[in-house]
Design brief:
The chain is an alpha/beta fold. The chain is built from 8 helices and 14 strands.
Length: 275
């Protein structure tokens, strides 16, 4: 898929509030940097409305933006130049095959990225993995919703899950999950190209949804139905300013919040199907 990269040039101290205000727009990823942040928008139409909303924000905040069209075939190079290992204590290390091995890891995953978005979500990946460290996966059925590179699905397999389904709407993500599952010998990971309705499983013990605010909010009803009674749902991919909105929506859909992890401007929540 082609994307538009919006390069927001501002005081990084404004990143948090601007990302929160842009969060309702259909951006897939926000990637912070020393001069502000980049926001990635799928090239699916509607850019004029996004441009208009950003221009309105300029009346209240001091920032500039540039929009660049990025063809899908350029994403591999961008990934490799931005992808850095993720190290979660001594519990889990995630690296690409062009990195040196990570010593002293209980679990080391080799993830060869083949897509662009995800490099800016290391905080969310880190927090979800921290939460996963405290979940019993042995013998469980797991769904990784919005699997991206498949990293969470593969880790769930490593932690003893009986069966893992991993779904993503992007065909590049599907292919990447298949490849990375093979590299890590996660033979019980079933990758699916499609939407939530294409998932063949109907009852999961654990669902991991590290996507973005809008997709999660729109999917809470179906996710509730896919979980077994007292199943665990972990959500991430949203910023601190969305904490109350997300918590309220989760509770309204029958989820009890058990744990919240914060890293920089990003949140992850562990919840229990309680309704």
């Amino acid at each position: 898929m082609d994307y538009y990269q919006y390069s927001i040039n501002t005081d990084p101290a404004q990143n948090e509030v601007l990302i929160a205000l842009l969060g309702h727009l259909p951006f897939d990823t926000f990637e912070e940097n020393e001069t502000g942040f980049n926001a990635f928008l799928p090239d699916a139409g509607g850019q004029e409305a996004v441009d208009a909303e950003i221009t309105e924000l300029q009346k209240c905040f001091n920032f500039q933006f540039e929009k660049t069209h990025i063809p899908g075939q350029n994403w591999n190079e961008i990934w490799e130049s931005n992808f850095h290992p993720v190290i979660v204590g001594s519990f889990c290390g995630i690296r690409a095959d062009f990195h040196e091995p990570l010593p002293g890891m209980e679990h080391e995953l080799v993830i060869n990225p083949k897509m662009a978005f995800g490099t800016g979500h290391h905080e969310t990946t880190f927090s979800v993995i921290e939460i996963m460290q405290g979940i019993q996966f042995t013998g469980k059925t797991v769904l990784d919703y919005g699997c991206g590179t498949g990293v969470l699905a593969i880790l769930a397999s490593r932690l003893g899950a009986r069966h893992v389904e991993a779904v993503d709407i992007e065909v590049e993500s599907y292919r990447n999950t298949v490849e990375n599952s093979q590299v890590n010998r996660a033979e019980n990971v079933q990758a699916i190209h499609g939407i939530l309705g294409d998932v063949p499983g109907t009852e999961f013990d654990i669902i991991l949804a590290n996507i973005n605010r809008n997709v999660i909010l729109d999917s809470l009803g179906p996710l509730y139905e896919l979980l077994k009674p007292e199943g665990i749902l972990v959500v991430s991919g949203f910023v601190l300013d969305d904490e109350q909105l997300m918590a309220g929506s989760l509770q309204n859909h029958g989820f009890a919040i058990l744990e919240t992890k914060k890293k920089n401007n990003w949140l992850a929540m562990k919840t229990l199907k309680s309704g």
